[in-house]
UniProtKB/TrEMBL annotation:
The chain crosses the membrane at residues 40-61, 73-92, 98-116, 128-144, 150-168, 180-199, 205-223, 230-248. Its main location: membrane. This is Probable membrane transporter protein. It is a multi-pass membrane protein. It holds the Pfam family TauE. Belongs to the 4-toluene sulfonate uptake permease (TSUP) (TC 2.A.102) family. GO terms for cellular component: plasma membrane. The lineage of its organism: Bacteria, Pseudomonadati, Pseudomonadota, Alphaproteobacteria, Rhodobacterales. It is found in: Cell membrane. InterPro entries: TM_pro_TauE-like (IPR002781), TSUP (IPR052017).
Length: 249
């Protein structure tokens, strides 16, 4: 009962956080590890559990994606798919002991990216217009999507920062492309994970269902949350705490 309760609560909270401000991985990944799932498998399962939320977000931003003119959508999809595959394959060839040692650093990096995300996005949006041509923009996007295929935590914030660095300034367009990229790279990487047998299906079913419900609740509550800064501070605190716990382990 405790096993399922932890996964349900973590899924509800992760889905709600992702809908409001992001950072759900800080709860879903540690919950899976706590229930006995090995870190690499927990990473893959957490990505699968988050995929329905990415699909819903991409669909919600479909109009903004269609209006995107700064980057060709086909190029974005192609690079995202390639990055997702490369990141997933990189995860497959990483020894479990090495990944366990890297996890605290990945969580700490994702927490820092989440904490600094708004200021980084504002700065890169303000100063990055026309900074990169299309080939270099594709390289930047590929680097972020490889990270996302390897470890999903904080990828949304990194994508927003990358789009600002590339030269995008329309936040609606940036959010639309961010959701599209997150959806594509997660779908591709999850396909690789499934083929490699890295999904803990029992946990994925419970966590994914709870995350979907939490995402719906979070979307409804988001209109009533006025102090987003305090919410972000709480998520950063959770991320920092989880990073410390994994460092101590």
């Amino acid at each position: 009962m405790t096993f399922y309760l932890v996964l349900i609560l973590a899924g509800l909270a992760a889905g709600a956080l992702n809908a409001v401000a992001g950072g759900g991985t800080f709860l879903s990944f540690p919950a899976l590890v706590w229930t006995g799932v090995p870190p690499i498998m927990a990473n893959a399962t957490a990505t699968l559990a988050a995929l329905p939320g990415y699909l819903g977000s991409a669909w919600a931003f479909r109009a903004d994606i269609r209006r995107a003119r700064s980057l060709p959508v086909r190029l974005v999809l192609l690079v995202s798919a390639l990055g997702g595959v490369l990141g997933a394959v990189l995860l497959l060839v990483t020894p479990s002991a090495v990944f366990s040692g890297v996890v605290p650093w990945l969580l700490a990096f994702a927490t820092a990216a989440f904490a600094l995300g708004p200021s980084i996005t504002r700065r890169t949006t303000r100063t990055g217009r026309g900074a990169f041509g299309l080939p270099l923009a594709a390289v930047v996007l590929l680097a972020v999507t490889i990270y996302g295929g390897y470890f999903n935590g904080g990828v949304g914030i990194l994508l927003l920062a990358a789009f600002g660095l590339i030269g995008l300034t329309d936040l609606r367009e940036m959010n639309g492309l961010k959701n599209l990229v997150s959806c594509m790279l997660s779908a591709v990487s999850v396909t690789v994970y499934i083929a490699a047998g890295l999904i803990a299906w029992k946990q994925a079913l419970v966590l994914g269902t709870a995350s979907a419900i939490g995402g719906y609740i979070g979307a409804a509550l988001s209109r009533r949350i006025h102090n987003v800064r305090a919410l972000r501070a709480f998520i950063v605190l959770v991320g920092a705490t989880m990073s410390l716990v994994f460092f101590l382990r």
